[in-house]
Please model this.
Amino acid sequence: MARLILFNKPHGVLSQFTDKGTETKRQTLSDFVDVRSVYPAGRLDRDSEGLLLLTDDGKLQARIAEPKYTMPKTYLAQVEGEPDEDQLAQLAQGVTLKDGVTRPAQAAPIPPPDLWDRDPPVRFRKTVPDSWIRLTITEGRNRQVRRMTAAVGLPTLRLVRWSIGPWSLDDLDLGMWREVDAHI
Model:
């Protein structure tokens, strides 16, 4: 039976088990998850936080990560500025990026969520307001949410992936993981 692990990845942690990138040791999945033979199903950038799925099943990994399956991924994004109806409509219709037009997304403003503190904290500027949006996409391009929000004039300050398909963070604390039923 396939194993599936939900991990609440902290900011600054690489979405891999080893770090071969620099001389300075960076935190990896192995600093948090002591389970053999599981691998990330998809990516989550080092400067993003939240849900990362790990599995030992290649077919399940493909079903989660490959764009052809259009598995929805929901993000909470703290953005610079306050979104207006036009910006939200652009996100909902699809945004033109250097690698093409994105699929339509669901986008809505939300009140600031009750999240863990981020280390390091997001910079605060008295003269520039910030706000939060919930964005659900069905693709997984490199840094897609950050590029989409920037393209409509709302640069992302903090990005938390909240859910992938039927799985979500719910009450999973930062840096913690749990094994769940892998059936989709």
About this structure: The longest strand covers residues 156-164. The CA atoms of residues 84 and 109 lie 9 Å apart. The chain has a mean pLDDT of 92. The helical segments are 58-65, 85-93, 144-151.
